[in-house]
Amino acid sequence: MRLLLLVFLLLLAPRASAQEGGVSAHGVGEPALLPTSRPERVTGEIATPRFRLLYTQGSEGTARALSENIEAVRESFVKVLGRDWPGTTEIRIGLGREEYEALALPGGQPPGWAVALAYPAHGIILLEARSLNTPEGPVTLRHELAHVALGQIGGSWPRWFQEGMAQHLTGERIALTHYAAIFRAVAQQRVFEFEDLAQGWPDMRSDVEIAYAQSADFVAYLASVHGAQAMSELLNGVAAGEPFEKAFGKAFHSSLTVEENAWRGGLATRFGWLPLTTSMQLAWLVAPALCVVAYLRRRQQQAARLEAMSQEEAAEDAEIERLAAEAAQQAQPPAQEGILLPWPAPLSEEQREAMDEEEARDPSLPKPTLH
């Protein structure tokens, strides 16, 4: 895809092609290429080598923060595209909806759902300051910058093609929300005809999501099926002034209707189940199973807790028995060793004579015997 984008921009000659009453990238009537005065709400300006940032009193901080990295953002586009677009790009930054709309070009008011708006032929981007602090803010800015790049390089494209190419440049086409949007459109049979997205654009937010998603997917489909060379021929023909459908037929040897029908034929297979992970339908499908799993897990945790408590009690009982045995042993008197009586010493000669005399006087005295 990087090679495709590089070839695309190298084949296009830089020229502006906006006309009175033309349609911008957001379906807004883009004003004619006439000099416009600086909006009254603007209180200051910050200039970088390739940008001019106009800010209001409340958005100066955002403008200064953006000025520190906006050149790097543009340089990242240059690396992907292979070339820069001409001129200085102007970014008008307002804080809040009122300031944001007050900075719009005359005759080019932004849609109610948009927090950023590009006027590609004018090289101007309108931006609400607080949107940059949201997770989607930097991607939104890059998306509008991609529209300015395409508009300044040249060519007149159907709206769906502008959006598809812009999302390729910013990488939005891989967002899971896009898969979910197309899944919803397929399930509800709300996939738009690209003929209806050539100039106009839906107003409802849910329809806008579908339009963006299917535009990005169809451009990716064309590039993957027909290859970079055929895509380059299409882009080169439109840049040279050919009607889009004529250039489409010459490049792909097919009609837009045939290719659109082929793309539609694969939607049910490609988007029939994957986006369930982001839909409420999946929640209703898996809720009973999740309840059962949660119940079993709870029972398992309780059983494990009871087993742990039982083991802990057994260990405490064993410790108590051990301590009791030690205490009982310490309470008993120490065992005494046997007392050995000394063996009588042998009688002396005088003692034997005395005993003999006593026996002679009293013969009834017992005599020791040996057994």
TrEMBL record:
The keyword NADP does not apply. Residues 323-371 are annotated as: Disordered. InterPro entries: Peptidase_MA-like_dom. Residues 110-265 form the Peptidase MA-like domain. Keywords: Membrane, Signal, Transmembrane, Transmembrane helix. Residues 1-18 form the signal peptide. The chain crosses the membrane at residues 273-296. Pfam families: Peptidase_MA_2. Residues 325-337 have a biased composition (Low complexity). This is Conserved uncharacterized protein. It comes from Stigmatella aurantiaca (strain DW4/3-1).
